[in-house]
Design a protein that fits this description.
Number of strands of chain B: 7
Helix content of chain B: 10-25%
Largest sheet of chain B: 7 strands, mixed
Shape of chain A: globular
Oligomer: heterodimer
Shape of chain B: globular
Radius of gyration of chain A: 17 Å
């Protein structure tokens, strides 16, 4: 089963200045969202493999959209995250089925490599609710400068029978990072952690 | 006059394929550009503010150009709108400075844009949202193109900031069927019909 997509939204934000200081180059984050029909809204479905396949489809689609919106090569992506918000006629497990089994592999193709776990969040929600997509370094989860998040919301989604699926990609960490820890340049990127 | 001090930009695009009805051949896209800038007049009453409109012109043009680029070229654009949110240290009147530089930037780049650019503005706290109205670029009465796009971000406008917004769309509402003047019947002289 492929996703029945009602809507796709992509947003890029650039931070050029913070607390009186210039950020150069600007830090940049992209988030891409697909609003899809929930094929299992309103009833209990034991086998969620259709949603897992949809996850794979959206991992590629949304990952590519983010990279294109940032205007970078896949290798230039530095951090990523994924989230889903399920409309009221679905269940939280639907978000898990989309996000966890199959979405990561095609997303890692879209950003090249991606040794680290993809940070994630999920919730039930309604139109206009905020979904906070967590961000972590794509190759080394301990890179502290890249722990971040990006908020996404659409005033008209998710409707009761819909699911909002979001993927976020950046080409940078936080503006003015200075809390230490492993840095992007020091990361080995082999075990996904350091 | 003060420089335009830009803290952040946000560019969003959304594409709607259907809204529960039959899926038309052509999807509808809307794009919004937000510039989050310092409000040079925050925290005091400044009687003479009009010079800042001139300072905002290059920003308006760069935003309009980027939106056109995101939507695939000027010939794709059928609707537009603009808006401003002013942080609590400023006043509503500061948002009005965006009318000329924001509106004329879009009209300068879009052929057959005789219609007034619809607008909205408000004073808001951080996380405030703005529903930016959209109408047809060449004839304000085209009913199929009355629309809006919600914009905003969790970290703005701070007290001493302004959020300046431009919005463009590529067509009518996805399942438009409320009648009125049709885009095909535009006379295109007075900006209204």
């Amino acid at each position: 089963m492929s996703a029945k997509i009602r809507k796709i939204a992509v947003s890029v934000e650039e931070t050029h200045r913070e607390i009186g200081r210039d950020i150069s180059p600007a830090t940049r984050k992209a988030v891409a969202v697909a609003v899809i029909e929930n094929p299992f809204a309103g009833h209990y479905q034991e086998d969620l493999s259709a949603l897992m396949d949809i996850g794979a489809e959206l991992g590629a689609l949304l990952g590519d959209k983010c990279v294109a919106a940032l205007g970078i090569t896949p290798a230039q992506a530095e951090s990523y995250g994924k989230s889903a918000m399920v409309g009221e006629n679905g269940e939280l497990e639907h978000a898990a089925a989309i996000l966890h089994p199959k979405l990561g592999a095609p997303l890692r193709v879209a950003v090249e490599k991606g040794a680290a776990l993809v940070a994630s969040s999920k919730k039930m929600g309604s139109p206009g609710q905020v979904l906070d997509v967590p961000l972590g370094h794509k190759d080394a989860a301990y890179v502290r400068s890249h722990f971040d998040g990006i908020e996404v919301r659409l005033n008209d989604a998710p409707r009761a029978n819909e699911i909002m699926v979001a993927v976020a990609v950046t080409d940078s960490g936080r503006p003015l990072p200075r809390v230490g820890g492993l840095t992007h340049d020091e990361a080995m990127g082999e075990d996904g952690l350091r | 006059m003060p420089d335009v001090i830009l803290r952040k930009t946000i560019y969003s695009i959304e594409e709607t394929f259907h809204e529960g009805g039959p899926q038309p051949e052509k999807s509808v896209r809307r794009a919004a550009g937000l510039a989050i800038i310092e409000n040079p007049f925050a925290g005091r009453y400044e009687p003479d503010i009009q010079g800042f409109m001139e300072d905002l012109k290059p920003l308006g043009l760069s935003m309009a150009e980027r939106l056109i680029d995101m939507l695939g070229g000027a010939d794709q654009i059928e609707g537009y709108g603009k808006g401003a949110m002013i942080g609590e240290g400023g006043e509503l009147e500061h948002g009005a400075l965006w009318h000329a530089p924001g509106g004329y930037a879009m009209r300068q780049l879009l052929a057959d844009s005789n219609a007034i650019v619809p607008s909205t503005k408000k004073v808001a706290g951080v996380g405030g949202r703005l529903d930016v109205p959209i109408t047809h670029i060449n004839a304000s009465y085209v009913r199929s193109h009355f629309d809006s796009m919600e914009v905003g971000a969790n970290d703005t406008p701070r007290a001493n900031e302004m959020v300046l917004a431009l919005v463009m769309s590529t067509g009518a509402r996805i399942h438009n069927r409320a009648g009125g003047l049709d885009a095909a019947d535009i006379v295109g002289k007075d900006g209204l019909r």
